[in-house]
């Protein structure tokens, strides 16, 4: 029988041996299984062998059986005692062989116990020899599973605790031999133990052998790289290994990836960090990261079927590997600032949408949460990427769906980033921040969802309009996306009710919609507390006498009623029983609406608001037909009782004006005719409790109610559409001057109510000219409101303040006579108004004044006119209307074609343009002027804002075809007009009124197309809207030629471009030209042929700059400076050679302007005049400075050809700069000098950073070119110094603020030239001198003393002579360039003192 023994620590708690063994693990602290034959259990081992005797002497008592052996002394003392005993033994060194033989004969597991004695120096050599003989035995596979103990692993682990190795090199050699023959599992154990076994001197040799093994056996990649990361190796060697690993990165298994990434990041240095990270981004295959989500999806399917499989464990393992991978990266970037900065830089350098990966976004989030010092940097990079369109919603969604487990741990950082993005001024960045909130709520756990809702509520209560709108939109999406999860956080949303005072009416609608959805959702039965709170708030606000709070109650009540009585018939998921509205629910809705009506009937504004809100609810088809049927009959009867009377009975009473029925479309001779009783209501509405203010809102409610109930059929109320109105004779005639102010105000109100009635019944009115007439003589008139969801009722037209101030100003400037209101209004010009040809005379000016006055009044009184619904614009389809004239027998007697007139077309286009601007331009981009009510911007668009942007976009795209028809008709009109007048559009045969209206229509059509109808419109970047983009492009391309519906995008873009480009010949104004070219740029943004597209845009822009446009008054150009600035920038940015374009304008166009009379423009560039010169100069200087900044600095590694090309480019740039800078001698106005000081300094700075390194390497080989460049630039910098003196003499603070920075830059330039000379061994050529301070004309500034003047003059003459001579020696050439540069420096130093 084989007995087994254990070697362990002593049980004696009082001895020091136990303390030593517990505090320091060692070979003797490990329990081993040992066997030996013929021993009696529970007895002390009695044996006369050398092995047993020496162990007893050293302090170990061996026992038989299963009893534990005892260590009577400390481990270190035992080893020392055994070492001394062996060394002092008389038979040393033979005693060592006997000792080991005794050990081998004592235990079966001889190597396990021998490893306990490895620390004894005298035993190591002998044991190593025995190890060679038993290598094959140790590597036997049976050891790995024997008695559930891996014996070889235990042996290897003992080698880690050796206190001292006698021959480390030999031990290393033996271990490496063992690795070569050991099985794979033992190879892993031995390799991972090497860092603790090896000495520092063996690291290099072992590293080389391991790298060879890495090539031979790829299965050992992970342990080898793990060990190499812990060894002290040469960086060059690590570089080779890292490159070897990088080449295999795409074929590595997911579970091995964390260790490999750890090695790669460990071997990164500051010099190659960016290169390594960039390569790692490219070669890291995304399948490693996508795999867990795929497995997760498959696992969900298996669970749903009720089956269990091993794929669940695989899924968990792969997810753990991905998490571990990012933990490794997170650890590296936390402790290595270089890695995090390089990673951000690598992502920043990525310049295309396809190159951006999910991995990039995850890394940005990880670095943002790990390294607080880089937060601002990451935010800037992310903003630039979003603004450029490189990071889109699809990429963000994939990031969250794939790596939600990784991002979940960074929830607070993700929300912090979203909060920072929501504070931006760019709508695209704000939208990205809202998506972060949305996906965080969708993919994260309950705690994170609570944090998301809390952050959104904080944004809503912040008071910032853009943040409030965005946060509310996100809440609306979340309520639809996951109502059950939102219900758990309803208590946070309910807190918004305490902050309703600080948000707009449209935002109040959203708040009540969210709360009502949560309160009345069928899935959330335990929501009665939200209903109770909402009812309390609504009743409290309705009972208030303040309109602001009553508005909150009305909007909240109607919104809640819409949710309670929602039309559920379209929901297929609901049963028929739940789909129908119950009688109890219908009663609750009716009671709530009656409460609102009773609380608002005392206030006309509140009643009108209630009618509008109720009408919007019906228009959106959110009201159940059963509830609509109950209230529909009441609405019709109430309207008839309040506003409709018999037309045959003229009202009698004490009226200030005679009552007369006007504007009826049919003859009302029968007794059943009806009329709108407007004038009597306007006088006596206080007695009848019915205000004429409610006429238009109430009719809209009635129309939508009937339309909804009868599927669009308005036959029941068709009598109201053409009935007359009881008014008075509106033509004032000679009575106007004799009317009192009260009577004129009454007539204005009557006309306003009439106009709003016509807008609601969609009739073309001809009374606007009468309104203009009365308003012009009533400047302080405030009309009745047309929109009622306003925060305050104290709304005044802009003319009351702004125009009156201008009247007073102009009255002082004039010859003492105060101008009339009509004259003042006609003088109010807007930059968007069409230009007036100067040679057309008084008729032209009169019409222009009339048109401007009309446009101005429409804008100023916009808040008081009723809003047109988006459906009205379907009239644009009726470009040609066929009217059939029937005889008495209802046969066609004649056919007449009625065309939509230009005034009506202009009216519709202007309103559509304003609607699209309000709806689709982000709120942050529509800045509110100073001291202007923040809510006034949204007045007039309340109905529109209750529709989604996608719905509006769909409506607009249905108008693309009719707008193309109108665009072509207007194009043909101007083409025919030019043909009749021999190529001149504004010739003598032109009809002034028609010309200006058609020109305005042209402008509005292009404006609508440019800003909103194509790719720049919101939503096109989303995949679901790509069909909309293709449809729009197909409409445009089909106007040119009919093609297949499945044309590629590039073909559609090309044909659409050519179609719109054909309109450039008929463009009537400069502003239309700018809109057209912007439209073409928007289309070509999606095209891949960027070079060809830029050439087309540049060519067209140059044609517009070289065209003679109709001029305005002599005192004022018809071209706006902003428009000219924009078009010139487009031309220079898209031209193939910007330097040649600048040289053409400055070298050809400007001299033509200088040599021409005062009022004559340049012949090459007619848009270049003395008034517009500053615009040309500013743009050319800015674009020149921007261009040279893009030139990469020269390096010694660049080829000779690159040096020559860059030097030639800089010669051209300096020549252009010299031409521009010398123009200030002729055009010395303040704006020109300001531009010169600002961009002159920036150009010199760019010269220092970009050009001087190039001159360092090019000076010797291209001496003549460098010399010429410096001579030219020296003259330019001298002129800049003269400009500093000019600013100082004239004491112009607006100019002198730029002088210190400019002088500092000039001084740095001289120091840099000195460094260049020193680099080229020409230090002796650098000399100092003084120059005179002069003004722009070169005249000496007299503030200097005579002695300095004499010295300066002599040195100035000397420098001019040396600059003309060309010496052949290097020293002479260097002296010329250096001397001239230093002269400019001395001017700077002299003046700065």
Overview of this protein structure:
InterPro entries: FANCD2. It comes from Rhinopithecus bieti (Black snub-nosed monkey). One of its GO terms (biological process) is double-strand break repair involved in meiotic recombination. This is FA complementation group D2. Belongs to the Fanconi anemia protein FANCD2 family. The chain is mainly α and 1393 residues long. It has 62 helices and 10 strands. A 4-stranded mixed beta sheet has the order 2-1-4-3. α51 runs parallel beside α53 (1121-1134) and α57 (1230-1258) packs parallel to α60. The longest helix is centred in the last third of the chain and has 29 residues, at 1230-1258. The chain is flat and about 150 Å long. It starts with a strand and ends with a helix. The N terminus and C terminus are likely disordered.
Write a compact overview of the structure shown:
The protein is mainly alpha-helical and 1393 residues long. It contains 62 helices and 10 strands. 62% of the residues lie in helices and 3% in strands.
In what range is the share of β-strand residues? Answer: under 5%
Low-confidence stretches: 1-41, 109-117, 126-137, 141-147, 287-310, 570-578, 799-847, 880-884, 924-935, 1344-1393
Radius of gyration in whole Å, from Cα? 45 Å
Helical residue percent?
55-70%
- Helices, by number, come to 62
Count the beta strands: 10
Amino-to-carboxy terminus distance: 107 Å
List keywords for this structure.
two-stranded antiparallel sheet; 62 helices; four-stranded mixed beta sheet; mainly alpha; flat; single chain; about 1400 residues
